[in-house]
Amino acid sequence: MSNHYETVFVVTPVLSAEQAKETVDKFKQMLKDAKAKIHNEEHWGLKKLAYPIQKKSTGFYQLFQYEVEGDFIAKLELAFKRDERIMRFLTVKLDKHAVAYAEKRIERLKSTAKAAK
Amino acid sequence: MAENSSEIRYLNPPAIDVKKEKYCRFKKNRIKYIDFKDPDFLLQFVNEQGKLLPRRITGTSLKYQRKVAQAVKRARHLGLMPYVADLMK
Description:
heterodimer; A: 117 residues; alpha+beta; 4-stranded antiparallel sheet; 3 helices; 42% strand; B: 89 residues; 5 helices; 0% strand
């Protein structure tokens, strides 16, 4: 039974832009291999951290909101732990209220994107 | 007897005993999910040192206070909110 999950992770700022992009694509590829349905994907870019993590004060934030089989999450978290370019990661299972909130967030993003164009 | 009890005339009624009715803002405007990703909303539930405000100050109900606490802790883990801060507001 596939559940809704939301993963936010912070990539170390030391990397160049395309290296950061490459780490993000690596995890996106992992999700695709596990036949996950990615609902939403956000890249907040370089943000200032509230406290230094690994002696660094900024980080690339990336959000994935997807639907996948439950057993895939252990593999994903292991990959996060192994990858030293990832400073922090957090995977959250979404209940029905959270999913409703996420849908509203997607529409809001679409409308702002449309308005920006 | 009753007249002299009402002898004391206040220029303006003392505001201390007017109790402002506290309410749970999540129940009132039907917020069902507290998002850990936007720290500026969560800052309202945290004092200047970054510590969580108690329910008696914010007036939130127990169910939503737990959700707020969990969201703040997740935001702290991700570096969106500080564990310890001074005069951050």
